[in-house]
Amino acid sequence: MSNLSVSELPVLQPEQTAVPCCPPLTERPLSAEEAERTAVMFKALGDPVRLRLFSLIASHEGGEACVCDISDVGVSQPTVSHHLKKLKDAGLLTSERRATWVYYKVAPDVVAAMSALLDLRR
Hints:
Elements: H1 32-45, H2 48-59, E1 64-66, H3 67-70, H4 77-89, E2 93-98, E3 101-106, H5 110-117
Antiparallel strand pairs: 1-3, 2-3
Helix pairs in contact: 2-4
């Protein structure tokens, strides 16, 4: 058993997800693993419907949106579900089922982490 005290143990947040752990592009070259992980996120956002869904969720009141509130993006409901799954699989969204509806929100810190990666002001 470790000699760590309770105050030294990390506290995990219930909805905390993995975010890009990459430095700004001007700091150092990305490793192959960092580039692969980050490319998955940017690839998911490379589709106009997914980018629009991501924007609708990120800008929705309270920072989360019911699928019923964001499904009018010019494609069928099954296609919306497909795109939401892709965004979630890429680590960009989290979801929670409440009764018959699913609510989505942008994964914590993901926008800030992606922004920091692209920060070229150094």
